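dumping these here so i dont lose them again. two proteins, back to back, each one seq then structure tokens. dont judge the mess
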Amino acid sequence: MGRSVLLIEDEPNIIEAISFILERDGWTVRIHSEGVTALDAVARTKPDVIILDVMLPGRSGFDILRDLRKDETTADLPVLMLTARGQTKDRELASSYGVSKFMTKPFSNSEIRETVRALAEGREA
């Protein structure tokens, strides 16, 4: 059975980097770049893991995370949140909404790969 990631990100260079890293590790990576329609993309693709940017066009990653956790079909879905801003208040907000893991940009290839693997396996990332 293939493993899939939904990458909700709007920066082309980040999309390219993460896709390359994870596809080499055997993941199917689907891309979505709009905040407003992100929940529809999750419902349509049914990923094993979501990588979610904080700042997206049309809707905040925090709002998307909050809605994912309110829906029983996605409440337990592993979500790795990415941001260029690593401020404590951002981490605390993400934690209060139930993020699985919070990571700041820039990140290392191995950090992304290992975190996504751990999240998919239900381990602490």
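---- next one ----
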Amino acid sequence: MALKKSKEILKFDKLENKEFVGIDIDEKALQKAKEVFAHSKNKPLFLHKNALHNVSRANFNITETDKLIIVGNPPYNDKTSIAQSHLKDKQSIIIDSNLKARDIGISFLNSYAMLKADYICILHPLSYLIKKTNFNALKAFSNNYRLIDSTIISSKEFCKDSKGYFPIIIGLYKRDNKGMDYDFIYNFTFTTIEHKSFRLNDFDFIARYIDKYPNKKKTQEHVAMFYTLRDINALARSKTFMQKADDNNIIYVTKEKYSLYCYIDVFKMQLEHIPYYFGNCDILIDYDKFKALESHFVKASEKRVLSLEIENYFKELLGVHYED
């Protein structure tokens, strides 16, 4: 594991009579786990159960007084995401009503809070934390836990043949009555397995200056049409300027905002220089430097030719994160 060994977690190394419980809804996975631990002196108790149904310590053979550390890699599936939508909703499981969420991984994190684990070490998409909508869905979890250590890795580690990669965080959380709010995450220093570090607060984002979603009711007069925006990874898959209207996904661009959408169009031309760990972020921008090069971005978008000034802009914007 890429995490540093926290001094706090070492306290549990001295506990005697440790007991291990493995829970999975997949019988084949449980059988494989049993084979791995076949010759272990301290074999885990393996339970073939749905970990999101009847969530309680008693149901999982854990007493209320047990010190509890949860380690895992839960499944995730954002039902609202456009990507791979044809694969979604084909497998459903029973989930306790108080745990239902747009993403099954969020349901798992909230279930850990119900079990009142002392520590949680878990892999999950970084988007759970850095996307405010996702973070707000984690209230049962975030109100009671605090991120104390983490490492970001690429989903490429698990799906090398995937069409696109996204950042996964290996997060170590400690139960804490202070919990964490989005401001805590916004100022948290994330570290990647490549030894790069960043804070969201280090950057400015395009969402401050434009409409990201369809705005037909808001905007009547327009000079262009643009496809709905989500994050950087979505930009890689989607269109930018549109010739024909699609009311479900169209942003109507006013004359005043046209150059900013040209900027996004040019940003897409620079995606090869953007590291995977920014994939779930909004599009980055240095607004003052953009304004100084505004005509360059418009020309680059319309003519599909980048000037040296624009190339230097992106190198300065990304700094140590710029990928050659």
